[in-house]
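Notebook p. 47: complex prediction with beta-D-mannopyranose.
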Amino acid sequence: MKSTIVRRYPGNPILTKNDIPYQVETVHNAAVVKYHGDYIMLFRSHLRTGRSIIGLARSKDGFHFTADRAPFLTPSQDPGFAAYEEFGVEDPRVTLLDGEYLITYSAYSRHGVRIGLAKTTDFLTVERFSLITEADYRNVVIFPAKFNGLYARLDRPHSEIAPWSIWISYSPDLRFWGQSELIMRPEPYHWDEMKIGPGAPPIRTDVGWLSIYHGVFQTMAGSVYRLGVALHDLADPAKMLGISDSWILQPEDPWEITGYVPNVVFTCGAVEESDGTVKIYWGGADSVMCVGEATISDLVQLCLSQPRASLHAPANLLQSS
Ligand code: BMA
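Predicted complex, structure tokens below:
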């Protein structure tokens, strides 16, 4: 039986390379936000060089998207950024805060992968603000709210001596980040045991911040990317209220099982609707874009009613594995 908690849109995939008016090989891992009632999608595409750029597509209903004629964000020529974006820009996330859309993206270069922060107010022009991590980080999502006057983000540093986990960091100005703390890590012998990373920017609910994240399980035939949900305390997002023990979405459709990278569903964005549902967007097999709908209270309930046993860092870190 296919996932029922996430109801796949029957018209998937909703955007593919054939829909893009310039040459690309994939359309995947897109951020999606609402802008003046429209849906804006910032999607990643591989070029034939194997490097990635970010394009933009627009929609009235969140299902049918039309791509702009030119890419939105390509590797920078600006001396402050160029050396760190030489190999491409990937996996954008967008957060609306104080009237600005904050775009975080992975910047690849011979020096590793860093996270860039760019801003837009109109989705016509975009300005780079700062590189906000050193190497090696990916999957930075910014909360759409401040906590005690500080911006907050979830991120995923790489480590050679520990499983890749989700951390939280804070900033007074979006440029300088600190107070970093490990808050969630892969659960041994679970679907996300190899590594986890933040997916869509967290969504505010009455009971906590809902985070849709990805988890990876290694098999003899390669890695499987699935999506899961976790709930963070409203006032103190470093505090986990519940992490669902089961995934909410796994590769099942043909375009999720086979493609550029097989067996991948990977999210960078979800849009909350006024009827209590959320549209979750995901890349299928690093090749195409898909969408599905879920009821927010169902996802919250999954975190609270079927949580995994170990929740809090660092106490559980000492006990597990
Ligand atoms: C991750 C990132 C994602 C990608 C996934 C599966 O490490 O590179 O952009 O979707 O692998 O290939």
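Notes: The pocket of beta-D-mannopyranose is lined by residues 29, 90-91, 225, 261, 264, 266, 283, 286 (CB under 6 Å). The chain has a mean pLDDT of 95.
Next step: compare against the earlier run before touching the bench.
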